[in-house]
Specification:
Length: 161
């Protein structure tokens, strides 16, 4: 498993997750496909934590959706994020999970997604900010031992099965 340390901080997390589009470098998920060198991922070891964090951020974003959609440009949206999203308990919980190392910001990860655990609200797709959770397998170091992780993503994901 190749991954980066948690050194990016809250400011860069903001850029990865909600500002101007997608975090990951490999685009939409197709379960069963190997995603080599996927970049800038939020990776959690716990299923329930990843779901709780995603649902919380989605709810906070849903409350701001109309205002974000009506914003005249990315700069105006960024102000809304800074003033109204980032201070929310949901966003702070996501930052806290990363700081506590319950989740991490992985610079690069090789993994194979297996299934969609949570599909974020379609109404947030227009903002490219719908947070979904994908169960994925990655390999411990250079062994054949697979580790299951839960990736919080704003990329398109297949439906929950």
């Amino acid at each position: 498993m190749r991954h980066g340390a948690i050194v990016l901080g809250a400011g860069l997390l903001v850029l990865l997750v909600v500002q101007g589009g997608h975090a990951e470098s490999r685009g939409a998920y197709v379960h069963g496909d190997f995603r080599e060198g996927d970049e800038k991922l939020i990776v959690c070891r716990g299923h329930d934590l990843a779901v709780t964090l995603s649902e919380g951020v989605n709810q906070a974003l849903l409350e701001l959706r109309d205002m974000l959609v009506a914003a005249s440009d990315d700069a105006e949206r960024q102000i809304i994020y800074q003033e109204l999203l980032y201070p929310t308990p949901a966003w702070q919980a996501l930052i806290g999970a990363i700081e506590d190392q319950a989740c991490e910001l992985a610079d690069v990860l090789d993994h194979t997604s297996r299934r969609t655990i949570l599909r974020g609200p379609a109404s947030l797709d227009v903002l490219k900010a719908s947070h979904s959770v994908v169960e994925s397998e990655t390999y411990f170091l250079n062994t054949q031992a697979a580790i299951t992780v839960y990736i919080i993503t704003t990329e398109a994901v297949p439906p929950v099965e």
